[in-house]
Amino acid sequence: TGVKSVIYLYREPVETVYSTLQYHREDIRDQGRIAHWTDVYGAHLHKWLVDESFTSKKTLVRYEGLKQDVCGEFAKVCSHFAQPLDADRLLDVVKKVSKDALKAKTQHDQQVVNVSASYAVTREEFMRDSGDLIRQRIFAQSPRLRDYLASPSS
Q1: pTM of the full predicted structure?
Q2: Angle in degrees, CA 103, 105, 111, rounded to 5
């Protein structure tokens, strides 16, 4: 059936749960909905990071890693395709990319990219208020996820 090759991009769970709640227009203070989306994302992460075994080639890319070291993290994608990283070209592209530019190109669903200042402030409050509980729930569901969700700088 051919090579089963996957590039899996994943993101920090607290921000993901917040984004999901916002996208579905759910109450970000509703502990039941927070628990629901935490469990859904935790199961997804566990499937792809821990259990998945059908791929013959899998490259893991972390969103926070891209933000911290775009060249280092994107080099994984290039390596996946056995291509060299052109760091100068990548950095030139990065200079041209912004959330505003992405939002302008994402016409099919205006909820996908939120660039409002209030969204960012509310996200910080959510992370402060719910972050520990979400991470505890994720790790209780799958302790092995700790290996994949440690701070990208560690």
Answers
A1: 0.82
A2: 40
**Lookup: tokens for 9:** 């991009």
Dist CA 133 CA 147 (whole Å):
18
pLDDT value for 120: 79
Q: What Cα–Cα distance (Å) separates residue 32 from each residue in 27, 29, 36, 83, 141?
A: 10, 9, 6, 45, 16
146 DSSP assignment: H
Higher local confidence (pLDDT), 85 or 22: 85
Q: How confident is the model at residue 154 (pLDDT cuts 50, 70, 90)?
A: very low
Hey, what are 127's tokens? 């992370």
Tell me how far apart the alpha carbons of residues 7 and 148 are, in angstroms, rounded to a whole number. Answer: 15
